[in-house]
Amino acid sequence: xxxxxxxxxxxxxxxxxxxxxxxxxxxxxxxxxxxxxxxxxxxxxxxxxxxxxxxxxxxxxxxxxxxxxxxxxxxxxxxxxxxxxxxxxxxxxxxxxxxxxxxxxxxxxxxxxxxxxxxxxxxxxxxxxxxxxxxxxxx
Amino acid sequence: xxxxxxxxxxxxxxxxxxxxxxxxxxxxxxxxxxxxxxxxxxxxxxxxxxxxxxxxxxxxxxxxxxxxxxxxxxxxxxxxxxxxxxxxxxxxxxxxxxxxxxxxxxxxxxxxxxxxxxxxxxxxxxxxxxxxxxxxxxxxxxxxxxxxxxxxxxxxxxxxxxxxxxxxxxxxxxxxxxxxxxxxxxxxxxxxxxxxxxxxxxxxxxxxxxxxxxxxxxxxxxxxxxxxxxxxxxxxxxxxxxxxxxxxxxxxxxxxxxxxxxxxxxxxxxxxxxxxxxxxxxxxxxxxxxxxxxxxxxxxxxxxxxxxxxxxxxxxxxxxxxxxxxxxxxxxxxxx
Lengths: 139, 336
Known about the structure:
- Chain B: Its cofactor is Fe(2+).
- The complex is a heterodimer.
- By secondary structure, chain A is of the alpha/beta class.
- In chain A, 24% of the residues lie in helices and 31% in strands.
- Chains A and B meet through α2 and β3 of A and α2, α3, α5 and α7 of B.
């Protein structure tokens, strides 16, 4: 599925549509260059899931945990500063991924060997200074 | 009565142990190649298993440097959160076992509260109430510190931490990670007003740093189109300008917090408090506005166990102990 020239205020609609179609898929990869809006899209997803915690970038913390309205934990990863999959394994990444909770992952290429095969991928590209194109590949 | 506390910090990258005696820090050991070298082996960079390998040598070294026998300890303290669960588990389990074996009380500490209380390690110390701006790679918050045991976050970032904004703009310029300290270094030689970047306006005392990262990306893209050597030719001015903007954003909300609370004691904590631009701007504001400013020694700004020991000392005096059933918390807000 693809949404072209999405403005920031339209992100909520896109997030809602993706969540509705993604039922049952828990490992999501967010792809896009720095500044494309990966964290911003995750904020929109979490807003739809009625997360009350502040959704922030986990570049330093590696993983942030949020609580949805239904009491489900959501894991938000950012593997930007790790060097290889081994380091990610050491922090228990596989346990998080197998937990059955929603895992939203930025900079996932560094942990490629740890990823399951049925991942959902969100590609965000910059179409203009105020719009983005969002493509979602469902497994 | 004497109070000797052993404190352990393992919330993220650093494994650290510290010994405190009646409010004075006797030792503060952070796992490093040097410490580990004495025990053989190397320090893996980032891992809970690294914490497992580091914790015993770090604690031994810390007791040895303090010249304290473990039988003299009155309490064991640890970081309960916030942080990386696997990393926190190592410190928590170790502290629990240690307290159980020695039959002494256990004290849990909130890592973010400890950053604030690091100001009580050395003179000059602030008096309550004061404001603390905690700035690091993972956090940006303004804390109203009513007492050592009563704090409230009155403003915080809604997306990226300021340290991350420094690191990511550095990355966009092609500087290695973490680029924050390099931006600071080049900024010293540059013109802070050479370029302007749109600072994001947020309601209240909150911050947002993801917008400026994106604005910076567009700025570089446009400049590089006109001159492919733009970054190499203007590194100093670009660094000075971005640093100037980020520091201005930080201080704008601090000024607002001061005027809203009427509190004129302003402290900074966290790794980014090492930034010379921030220190200088804060000193200038303080002079202009008659604030009293507090900046801890750098070793107490980054993650360390001395600040955990200090925070634990306040809890010890108040008789606030925890129990053996305690488990670490990845999410752990201040003041809860």
